[in-house]
Amino acid sequence: MKSIAISGSPRENVGKRDAKELRYQGLVPAVLYGGATQTHFAVSAADLRAVIYTPVVHFIDIEVAGKKTQAIIKDAQFHPLTEQLLHIDFLQLDENKPVTIEIPVKLTGTSPGVKVGGKLVQKLRKLRVKALPKDHLDNIEVSIESLEVGKSVRVSDIKVDNLTITNAQEDTIVSVTTSRALRQAEQENRGK
């Protein structure tokens, strides 16, 4: 899985007033959990754009006061009106502990159902996956080569080594439904 490096500066004061001052300076208050102690720090909002505003999942190499840590984003809080990033939580990774991450679904192949006029409907764009950090993938490939009209691929159909998908097994990832044009063509054929 890809990594992005960001650096932050430790926060001496933790509180609303201090957080507001940091945001005014273009920084985002952040917390790193999962280690022996919590680390409160501030990071540039510009550095976080490549991590937050992307469908790609990244491990983040965080450097605070000379100490490097690998982490993932656990939570991000945004202002309800301006969509400004207000706060971000990171979870420190341990190579011996499994971690749950949402990984994008990548559809591969061409569906025969779509070729005959069916409509491709992707219901899940990400899957929750639990695995050791070294086993995580950039995306999960789902083949639609055998997807006919009326058929679907469910979470239970996906098997990936060393990963456990924690979504409900009966959830549909992608399906091919009958399109309006295909229904009309079938009705015209019946009428003849």
UniProtKB/TrEMBL annotation:
Pfam families: Ribosomal_L25p, Ribosomal_TL5_C. SUPFAM superfamilies: Ribosomal protein L25-like (SSF50715). GO terms for cellular component: cytosolic large ribosomal subunit. Residues 99-179 form the Large ribosomal subunit protein bL25 beta domain. GO terms for molecular function: 5S rRNA binding; structural constituent of ribosome. It comes from the Bacteria. InterPro entries: Rbsml_bL25/Gln-tRNA_synth_N (IPR020056), Ribosomal_bL25/Gln-tRNA_synth (IPR011035), Ribosomal_bL25_b-dom (IPR020057), Ribosomal_bL25_C (IPR037121), Ribosomal_bL25_long (IPR001021), Ribosomal_L25_dom (IPR029751), Ribosomal_uL5_bac-type (IPR020930). Belongs to the bacterial ribosomal protein bL25 family. CTC subfamily. HAMAP family: Ribosomal_bL25_CTC. Part of the 50S ribosomal subunit; part of the 5S rRNA/L5/L18/L25 subcomplex. Contacts the 5S rRNA. Binds to the 5S rRNA independently of L5 and L18. This is Large ribosomal subunit protein bL25.
